[in-house]
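[Q] Does anyone have a clean structure-token version of this?
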Amino acid sequence: MMFEPFKPFLASAYQIKFATEAWEKQGAAALRRQVFCAEQGLFDGDDRDAVDVSAIPIVAISLFGIAADAVVGTVRIHRHPEDPGVWWGSRLAVTGQYRRLGAVGTGLIRLAVASAHARGCHTFLGNIQSQNVELFRRMHWRTLEEMELHGKPHHMMQADLEFYPPFEKPEEGFLTLPKLAA
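[A] Here you go.
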């Protein structure tokens, strides 16, 4: 009898929310170091910068049943220091085994833009690595400019706020389910 190799078990649902607990913030920081330092080599040792002082971290938490398991995705949002109506999203990171699901990254993007929209955002921007541009285009973002950042091609993109109604309870967030393969 032949046995199939073990396939990792993925969560049944995800909670997308502002990071409010210490373990959520620590998980977000660890995931950013894993993706941007270890995997991509964009930063040496740590990717934290001055933006982190005022940024709001958002997390995707894997759920098994009703129990929170781990931070499997993160992004941060922050106001422009000179124009409080302009918000930025940055450092979108998803754990490797969850990247192809779609629900984690798109959920993080939705909450980032919709929660900023609820806080007076009139313009939401992000510098997106070129390999991720198509995902953002499908989510109603447009390229304003192409550039190189940290040695990689990026697009400065803007979200169409009409597709992101204001979301008033980001500390609670929302649940999202993995998308099934077609």
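[Q] Thanks! Anything notable?
[A] The beta strands are 13-18, 56-64, 67-80, 83-94, 123-129, 141-149, 152-159, 174-176.
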